[in-house]
Amino acid sequence: MISAGGVGFDISCGVRTVLTGISLQEVRLVQRQLADSLCEQIPAGLGSEGAIMLEAIDMERMLQGGARWAIEQGWGDADDLERIEEGGAVAGARPECVSERAKKRQRREMGTLGSGNHYLEIQAISEIYDEKIAKAYGLAPDHVVVTIHCGSRGLGHQVGSDFLGEMLPAAEAAGISLPDRELACAPIRSEVGERYLGAMRAATNCALANREILGHLARRVMRHFFPQAEMPLLFDVSHNTCKVEIHAVEGKQRELFVHRKGATRAFGPGHPSLPASLRDAGQPVLIGGSMGTGSYILAGMATSEEKAFSSACHGAGRAMSRHAAAKQWNGRQVSDELYGRGIIIRSPSSRGIAEEAPGAYKDIGAVVASAERAGLARRVARLAPVVCVKG
Amino acid sequence: MAERGWQHFPHKSDLGICGWGPTMDAAFEEAALARTAAVTRADVASATRVDIRCEAADPELLLVAWLNAVIYEMAVRRMLFGRFEVRISGVDLGRDDQPRAARTRLRTQGCHLQRIERVAGRGRPMVGALRCRRLREPSDGYVTFHEDRLHNMVHRARRRDARPRNHLRRRTIAARYGRQGVHPDGKRRVAARNRPCGVCDARCALGLRFSNRRGLPHSIRAGAE
Questions:
Q1: Which residue among A117, B12, B76, B218 is the one 20 to 30 A from B208 at the CA level?
Q2: Helices B148-157 and B166-177 sit at what angle, rounded to 10 degrees?
Q3: ipTM
Q4: Any catalytic annotation for residue A314?
């Protein structure tokens, strides 16, 4: 079976981290200007639109080509491709299965951050837990990295909504009683299932292209302030996907459709799909925390294959709803408090800041420690936020 | 409790919205108002009518389809809606003298259904129609447009840690009073409403439209219904 709800509505929402080699002290000198420039250059917020407007032919190419398409257009670096899941583009995408409404929504939304918990952060590496893996990843204490969290914007949501309605009767026809209608699903080999798979892969490519463009915009700003900076991509990994992978089930290698909703792929050391430069260390697992408490970089462990089909958590998780957070905090108050701690927040929405207040999230340290104890991914480095552009 | 109204409520990590009214039509209208209120608390004044037709197999799915259609129109037209007129037909709703409450869960970019209470009837198509309003100036003294970048500029100009540069001040003035100095409260109206934008051929629906990468407003329409 394949489930639209099991993939989620922000299809291929994910995180990418770019190394900079710049020290925190250097960033502190231009921290405010950097925050303003990133805010100016990175369109953020609900319904935000960027400078890129796609014609129909470009839309088709983007949905097929993903990050590769973005690089061909000059919005990215070809060296990034080996550090992106699936080499930057998922095979089997079928743009013709994506509705015109979805394409229309995305027409002006390429290279935008979106709203909610999506962000672009400049983060300082505040603690190293595993020096060997950190070295393999290129992480050094007090250096800063740029981390981007966003997804497939309006297109992905429209694809999810379109197929949710189609899959409900399909599930009923297949004799499946759903405990929750959002878990609407269809047999993979059915007409609806195959169309969803093609559309979902196209939406995944949209997300990969979007993050590549955002990475390009962020690099452009960083290089304005630090012209000498080399900014290689550490990794780009999605956490709302369904992918065909080979896993051991009851001792046999089987091809599975692995749904990950709010879960990150976490391949352990030696996995053949990892690039050679990362194969010994294992896949970087990028875990977003909150804009006050920081984030983590983990490394996939070999035991995660057996325990969770090579998956790990994707973030801290909310401790309270957006509604409750907006009632408890004021955006300006949160922003001022974080400014006092050396963290500059830029967002088009004061209410959005309140909803994303650090107190609204679980303790990220406890979450990643649990993931490590469970044998899913080991801690490599802790990242402290310095600048946060919030959607 | 009032005869009709809406509210937001906490739902796990998301925002829940609830609209209620004497009929399901009214409950759907209130649910859509709750959706708009999740974006902005600013008053949205009438300017343009948009008709939307939705069909679904049952009332729950119709509510999802309805709110997602509103979100879609907001996204592609770059508009906010402030008044809704819903007509649901083609379904046996049973006795319509009982109050209805439509509840749903709102996520970042869409709505996902929880339930509709006291609703009978399944399996037939239903229809909704939508009327929208144009933004007008809220009571706190400056314009909060739905365009995030301008919204950001206006607010940033007021922050202590980001003093506005001259061009930002100009944009702020444009945001408050329009490029032609017309205050958007409608006291001084421009006669030609819904006229084409001077830069592109699009018509401005909300009073402001952005077309270029710098987010500069290049078309402002004054007047309100």
A1: A117
A2: 120
A3: 0.82
A4: yes
